[in-house]
Write a structure and sequence with these properties.
Number of helices of chain A: 9
Oligomer: homodimer
CATH architecture of the largest domain in chain A: 2-Layer Sandwich
InterPro entries (chains A, B): GAF-like_dom_sf (IPR029016), HTH_MetabolicPath_Reg (IPR050707), Tscrpt_reg_IclR_C (IPR014757), Tscrpt_reg_IclR_N (IPR005471), WH-like_DNA-bd_sf (IPR036388), WH_DNA-bd_sf (IPR036390)
Largest sheet of chain A: 6 strands, antiparallel
Keywords (chains A, B): DNA-binding, Transcription, Transcription regulation
Structural class of chain A: alpha+beta
Order of helices and strands of chain A: HHHEEHHEEEHHHEEEH
Number of domains of chain A: 2
Protein name (chains A, B): IclR family transcriptional regulator
Distance between the termini of chain A: 40 Å
CATH class of the largest domain in chain A: Alpha Beta
Radius of gyration of chain A: 20 Å
CATH superfamily of the largest domain in chain A: GAF domain
Helix content of chain A: 40-55%
Chain lengths: 266, 266
């Protein structure tokens, strides 16, 4: 959708909701209108309707708007995410118990690593990759895995675009990154060392579906000082293989899980 | 919003997305139109626009529609949920490690217990409360806590409506439930025993903000045979108090967390 010129009513509604996509917790009405390229009158009317419907919420004290719980709830039903998350969580819990580092699960989304679940290693390096946030593919362990196994056109598009330097260690030379990605495919895992944030390093491995296609990346993020792949890789690779087996048995590319889940239990 | 007669363009869009709220993974175009009370022509056009924008996704094999990853991502930014989840997760992880039972966090939503996060006890009773799903207040441990501390009008509305019997043990008599809720307030915790699902029992405790207002419920769900409150309550109450302290220090009713979170780290 071209958010700069919403073509239709649905386009305008999507443009308003997209205004929050960058991750801003709250926006003023004028900021929403500016980002959605809507005249104030139109924006005011649509935002009012979305607020009445619970898709947006108005902050009492300052009148700013934020994404509403109702929208969160509808979005949480996205099967491509919820099915994968559902099958991955137990393996991520095991990995957390084994390492107490940050455990993250990411998928490829709009040329970025989109984090669909993560457990936080409280006694590890502080990481605030939040569910729903995305990070660059070239500077994160999970991202390198996704990029290494992405369709060639996606990979080349990322390599052709400017590679943002996040730290002095970020790989910003396309050829150097291309060699690193080849090593990721060869070795079966990716590593970063202070490449996204100084002091944080990671190891990432692919998660495959029944066809062997890489559908996600599982990663551990630890303090650089303790982030030895020789320590992190064995449990990580073990959990990724176990998850891949579960995906092969229960997961469909369209996000459905079979057998269908039993009814909710208290 | 009155989904039976979408008043406006935004209302129609919300009605289409609301069609997925009951938790259906995928719907046909005609099912969406039926639920959204839209003529096929209008529904077809709007669904097409929402699909083009990534808010909906079309299943390749059968042409049904499902919630798109883009909508999931925007929804995941709902601060009322994400802020609470962010602060709760470390405490839920501790509780999981201490008990290996199902750890759940719920808030009050539309007269139901809305589950915003949960960790799965693999070696415990199978529970598929999924993030974003809701369960009845009167038959779940977390729900009883939320109901016991809900505004009187909300509580009376739930007590006045028919109380669904999920098992032979579900409390369906309003007076009996009212007495149980009074005990929940007096004791500081709620219990269920086979009331939602035979074989599963739970203990729930309140999570309070800095004003002492109950803003969420933390619960453990275990096999009825092993669900002894004397075992489950101490770690649960400890984690809930620790989370309440974090909320008092860092959480605002509008969902913001202070101090602001540091930038994303790999």
């Amino acid at each position: 959708m071209d958010a700069r010129r919403p073509p239709t009513a649905a386009g305008k509604v999507m443009a308003i909701l997209d205004a929050f996509a960058p991750g801003d917790v709250r926006l003023t009405l004028s900021e929403i209108c500016r980002r959605a390229c809507l005249p104030p009158s139109t924006g005011h009317r649509l935002v009012g309707e979305l607020t009445a419907g619970g898709f947006l919420e108005r902050t009492p004290d300052d009148g700013t708007y934020r994404i509403g719980t109702r929208l969160w709830r509808i979005g949480s039903r996205a099967p491509a995410v919820s099915g994968l998350r559902e099958l991955a969580l137990p393996h991520m819990e095991d990995l957390y118990e084994a390492t107490h580092d940050n455990v993250q699960l990411a998928v490829l989304g709009d040329g970025r690593a989109l984090f669909v679940e993560r457990l936080r290693g409280r006694r590890s390096v502080p990481v605030v990759t939040r569910v729903g946030s995305d990070l660059p593919l070239h500077a994160t362990g999970a991202g390198k895995v996704l990029l290494a196994h992405a369709p060639a056109d996606v990979r080349e598009a990322v390599l052709a675009a400017p590679l943002t330097r996040h730290t002095g260690s970020t790989l910003t030379d396309p050829d150097e990154l291309r060699r690193d990605l080849a090593a990721v495919r060869r070795r079966g895992y990716a590593t970063t060392r202070d490449e996204m944030t100084v002091g944080a390093s990671s190891v990432g491995v692919p998660v495959r579906d029944r066809d062997g296609t890489v559908v996600a990346a599982l990663s551990l993020v630890a303090r650089t000082r303790g982030a030895d792949p020789r320590r992190l890789l064995p449990p990580l690779a073990t959990a990724a293989r176990a998850l891949s087996r579960d995906l092969a048995a229960h997961w469909h590319a369209d996000g459905d899980i079979t057998p269908p889940l039993p009814p909710d239990a208290d």
